Each structure stands twice: as structure tokens, then as C-alpha cells.
């Protein structure tokens, strides 16, 4: 039997007849006419090729097949009703045990989590946050499939199926250890080019626009070392004579902890715009909306 052949409303009638043991009583409880209930029962009998109910002096008695169907049908309809009832309910962060998956880069993780984690712990102690990395080519599919709830970053090529909210714009700055030669005097283009640079080769990220501008200014030619991400950059710079150009939010987050100084590079660099992104299927989800609002309250400029 194909499930498509079964009308959900017929199963509601089935359960009511099973409960009341009568056509008239079932019709009254359902707000239907007796002929309508009789017609529904006839359709069910055709679908299941079984009488389902037999008229006796004590009422409509179920056949063995009807008794076999009773439990699963009742459970399935109850679960469906429960789900429908929950659809419009408010999300309660204080009691929710929901898990949210957020895609972000390592540099975003350094900036966002130190403030997001304690806020979520205070407002939603049982909510779990799972941070993942996702390549731009697979990110949108993962979000559409529900594997990822939110993406945070400077991406710009999301399709019309996604909503976005801008959090902030930021410049890039050059960081170096406190006491470095560049910490004294004006940071001219000549001095900037002469320094030993730590190059971050995140070629598939929005940072590639920054890297392109630095490359045009001749900075890459001065790169003594190259790393694939920002994760170790603050520590490397703090313990060497290398300098690195990084997003301002990252620099501000780590400068004190690593004893770093920072300066605006003497090269015109594009601004990075950081957004939250989410698929439209989650736009009206109460829990999802709470998470987006919480992030915006903390980080939006």
C-alpha cells in the first residue's frame, strides 16, 4: 500500500469511530454529518481492503486489522498534533536544550566566542553551540540542508534563498611586537615594505581582497613566512620580528594578551563587512531568531 493513497482526515475519522464505537457519536464529536462519516469509513475499507468495523448490538466493533492499526495511527496523529502545536510556541532559552551549529572562520572564532559564550551561558545554560568550518563551495548546501544554522563572516555571494544582517565593518591593521622598530616613528610605505612580513594565504576567503591590495603594493615580495590562517599569527608575531596585517577586530582582541602594538598600514585596503547569514527556511524559527538577535545585540555596530 502506498501512503499517498491515505487521506489524513480519514484516519481522524477512523480513531473517532474506534473510540465511540458508533457512526452517530463519531459524527457528532467531529462536527460532521452521519453520511460524511459513513463515506469516510467506506473509503477506508476500500483502501485497506478490510471491513475495519462490524456492526453488532453493542456498537461498531473493530476487526483484527483495525485493532492492529489503532496504536500506530493514534501515536502518529498525536505526534503530528504535538508538532503542530509547538510550531508557534515561543522559544524559552532558559529551559531549551537545543543545539545550534554556526560556521565561522578561525579569526571570527577568536573575536566572537569570548563574548558569545558567557552571554549564552547566562541566558541559555543548556543550549549548546557547535562551531564548524565550512568551505564556501559547500556552505550554502549545508545551511539549506539544516546542518548549519548560521554563518558569520564577510562572504558576499549568498543566493536569494538566504537572509543576511550586517554586524559591522572593519579595517585591517598591521600588528607587531611591542618594542618593534615600527612602533617608533611614522609607518611610511618605505618602512612598511622593508619590514619582514608574515603572509596569510586565505585565498578562498574575503581576505583575498586585502591580500590582493597588499600584493599590488609589493608587500608579498617581502613575506618571510606564509601561513594558511590567522590562528597562530598573534603568537608568531609576538615572538619574532615579523609583522602581519590582520582584521582590526582580531588585533584588538589579542593585542593586550600577546603584547602587540598595531598601526594603520600605509596602503589603501578595502573594508571587511561581517554579516550573519541564514537560510529562509529558518527565518521564522523562534530559537533561530533568538540566536540571531543575541549575536546582533552583542556585536552589531
TrEMBL record:
Entry keyword set: DNA-binding, Transcription, Transcription regulation
PROSITE patterns: HTH_LYSR
Alphabetized SUPFAM superfamilies for the sequence: Periplasmic binding protein-like II, Winged helix' DNA-binding domain
Residue stretches making up the HTH lysR-type domain: 6-63
Record has Cell membrane as a keyword: no
MF GO annotations: DNA binding; DNA-binding transcription factor activity
Family to which this protein belongs: Belongs to the LysR transcriptional regulatory family.
Protein name as it appears in the record: LysR family transcriptional regulator
Protein's organism: Pararobbsia silviterrae
